[in-house]
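Support case: user asked for a sample of complex input and structure output to validate their parser. Sending the pair below.
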Amino acid sequence: MQLQLQQVLPVYFDEDHRTQSEVWRRNLTFEKGEYIKIVAPSGSGKTSLMHFLYGMRNEYNGNIVYNSANLRNYTPEDFAGYRKDHVSIVFQDLRLFPEQTVQENIELKRQLNPFHPAEKIREMAERLGIGNKLASKSRICSYGEQQRVAIIRSLMQPFDFLLLDEPFSHLDDKNSQNAMQLMLEEAKLRNAAIIFADLERIDWFPYTRIFHL
Amino acid sequence: MAVSFKPIRSLLQTGTNTSSRWFSYIGLGIGVLLLLCSIQMYINIQQLLGGESQRKDGSDFISISKTITNETMGLLEKNLFNANDIKDIETKPFIEGVSPLTANRFRVQLSAGDIIPFSTDMFLESLDNNFIDTVPPNFAWQEGQNYIPIVFSSDFLEIYNVFAPGYGLPQLSAETASQVVVFITCYGQNGEKQTFRGSIVALSDRVNSIIVPKNFLDWANNKFGNTTDVKASRLYIKTKDANNPDFLNYLQQKNYKVNKDKTKFGRVKQVLQGIFSGLGIFGLLVVILALMLFSFYLQLMIARSKDNLQLLLMMGYSPNWLSKNVSKQFIPVYVLVVLVALALTEGMQWAFHHFAMFDRPELSSLLHWAVMGTAVFLIGLSLLTNYRMVKKLLYKLV
């Protein structure tokens, strides 16, 4: 299971980025089990990269290849399978269903390809301190709470790669470490890789490789 | 995929305007009802009027002639059928056979001899034996034979019996008529004349004429009328159904004259079928309009739920699975709408059969299978169009 970046550069970026960046316009291969840290200041294309890897956008030059299949050749059905079975994500902007409860938001992901039984939702929610929010509509939860919902949601499915796009922006250190610990455990269970993009270095992520975007 | 659609349903019901959905259901119902009723009535007409014209031997025999107008008056060529006309008629699929009715082209006088003091100028015609309903074995003539067998129209005998008393002539029964020997005198153009004996060998209900064997008339036309090329003024046509609209259209288009009474049902059928075809087309248009309205409703629904649907697709929901399930939501309503229309059509058919047609055996109180088939087809069609449209819209969101 490999995720490869081949000379990828967003079409809306100047070619200067290639000299400054350790990711854009490079050939990189991410393997299962790796912990990749991507340090990216604002405007360096962190979210773009995450969206490209997740197959949501394709405004880039170069290729992204998953298991020797180019994402550009994926059909809408292929993408559904890719996101359901192989790659999970925590969006920077979370993307929860505002009118659904926390429980429902997580369950919508879990039922698609259950890695855990339904009881696991409560267990994880309690571990991250939002056990009492399960029945609340997600739009009335605070941003920090919503961030934890998005994290739990991403852990409900099997995956080879877990993409994290500033997952702790609204969490204090204690909560962040707590959530990080959970994600590391879950990645280990699947022998999966984590690709963690954030503004700056975070000490509690035991990365195996680091790139500056 | 054992994924449940239940939690997703609430993501699509973004509240608001359900009236357009109900309008489209009602429109669909009305359209389907119109369409089904039209098909059923069309079939009813077919069964009612199609059955009427079936003869025992399976065919209709009718004579046609060219309509004589002020323009063609006196132009013999234009009022007679030529070989091309006959050939053209023969090629039509609804025609089983054509035979020209050839008339005499010389003066013929008929007298009843001494027994009945009656004498009149007459006409003779000949026709293929196949087209005459009653042909006895002695209906034949050979050159040199002085006796001519005649097939006489029963209508003419009736007419004779009407006026006979007024002229002091005896009325004749069918049996007696065939025993009366008549004298047929043919006059040539150069003053020559020849008298033949004749008798009625059969009465015909079908042919309104005085028919003599064809070879006799051909011979006599040649001898007394100095012509071998005798064009027919009337054609006898054998057809499966004289009320066939195609046949009637053909006659109308060619400006051929036909006994109106024989084709009366056909004309009524033509008009009624026209009306119900029109209604059916209207119904179909309403169905199409309703489906369009519904597709607008669906588009609106998808546009309103765009964020939610996009998020579902982003989470890994299959667009194909989503399209199937979104369109599946409407199966019960569609089936219900079509079933209600079908039930109303059945009610209409029952009432029509029972109250308007007094349970005539040609019709059934139940719906024709074609109507049921159309109903099933319409359900399938609406679901398929919905599925395709939803799928197209969802693929755009991926």
